[in-house]
Amino acid sequence: MALTLPHRATTVGHRVPALLRRPSLLTAATVLLVCVPTEEKDVAASVHVTPADLASLLLVALLGLDVLRGRPIGLGRRACALFGAITLAAALATLTSIDPSASLTGFVRLEQIFVLVPVAVLAALRDRTDLRLVLGSFIAAAVVEGAVGTVQNLTGTGASYTGAPIRAVGTFGALDVMAMSGVVSFGLLAALALGLMERRGSWARRGLLLTAAFLAFPLAVSYSRGSWIATALAAGVLLLKADAKLALRWAGLGLAAAVVLVGGLGAGGGGVTARLSSIGTVSGGNEDHSVSDRYDLWTTARAIWADHPVTGAGPKSFQQLRDSHAPLRLSSGSDTSDATNGFQREPLLSPHNMYFLVLSEQGLVGITAYGTLFLALLVGALRRPGAAGPAVVGLLCWVLVDFLYADIGGTTTVLTSVILGLAAWWALPADPEHRPEPA
């Protein structure tokens, strides 16, 4: 429902209703702004505010303005209950925290990422044009970052990997080494989904599918194992949701393309293969310390949860309790290096698993609330028919799988909020007339 002003309104007055009629523009801007370099060097700082964060907060402000003006925002009872449970769990964890004052900033961040921005995105999406606009912004951001990452790999100007500056990190730098792979993955899935929505044989379909194919290269040379796994599984689910027969055909094509990409074209060749094989190697002379450290961090999170089982130790408490609960072999940090920041040792301040992070910091109450939200979004998106389904399911699956290897933090965290908002918009519709008709 669009808002209008009298004809005698000022020029500025005309612009505000236009933005209110299409707030998905601000959602798209939030996605695109993650590409702006922040030059953040203090990775241990408690608060990071990026241009994308500011845009997301402006989107939340527009949501608040809609509420004050009495406009329906499409938030149904199920969505209210699910997001309300997240707020309650985080609030209880903060109140019972080992350090409530330190947990307060964590509570605010959790509210932004898992409640306020997703609800604002849900309210901003009103028709299929809005969906295409947001998915298009994911593709545009991925193309920018993928192009930068490809140049970094080919010219040896990226982050250090096995002693060579070949790791694609886009505009994010070595201190946020996984950010580019996430952005590229989202764009690849969005391009694939939008391409399947286009008419067979059309130039738009071909262009989108070629874009998805191009993004496979910078994703490969990001050397992010979690992103590889998440993208492969998400793309499979996306294709199954779109067309089961098509999924089977494309599985063979994808395998052939991977062989050509890695073997024939030398996209990191042995490096990619070695990186994949290191996932399960945690002992012996050839273990990957980044893998063993991650598993040790999970063990640490479980130990913290055992001491605070119901409401957890409190947001931002993992980093305080890590050393007292960690195995002796856990490294103090991860080595990073690039041309901009030089060599730095990045501290391991989280378990690198969102589920273990919630369990340790918010306990059984928190993991139940988050698990219920994620399951409701996934089941709702899978069950609902329509052209938007594959895109939403693919992006949501990526986030849920990636949470097994990563947690919130870094420049691109706000993109998780946008995806959760997309999923809530599709999976938890409150008013069918404000949603696109099933195709």
Outline the secondary-structure elements.
Layout: H1 11-21, H2 24-32, H3 51-68, H4 77-95, H5 100-124, H6 128-155, E1 159-161, E2 164-167, H7 179-197, H8 203-220, H9 225-242, H10 244-264, H11 269-277, H12 289-307, H13 318-325, E3 333-338, E4 342-347, H14 354-383, H15 389-402, H16 413-427
Antiparallel strand pairs: 1-2, 3-4
Helix pairs in contact: 2-3, 2-6, 3-5, 4-5, 4-14, 5-16, 6-7, 6-8, 7-8, 7-9, 7-15, 9-10, 9-15, 10-11, 12-13, 12-14, 14-15, 14-16, 15-16
Overview of this protein structure:
With 439 residues, the protein is mainly alpha-helical. Helix content is 64%, strand content 4%. It contains 16 helices and four strands. The strands form two sheets. Strands 1-2 form a two-stranded antiparallel sheet. Strands 3-4 form a two-stranded antiparallel ribbon. A hairpin with a 3-residue loop joins β3 and β4. The radius of gyration is 22 Å and the shape is globular. It is a multi-pass membrane protein. It comes from Kitasatospora viridis.
Identify the notable features of this structure and list them briefly.
single chain; 439 residues; mainly alpha; two-stranded antiparallel ribbon; two-stranded antiparallel sheet; 16 helices; 64% helix; globular; disordered N terminus; disordered C terminus; membrane; ligase activity; O-antigen_ligase-rel_domated; O-antigen ligase; ligase
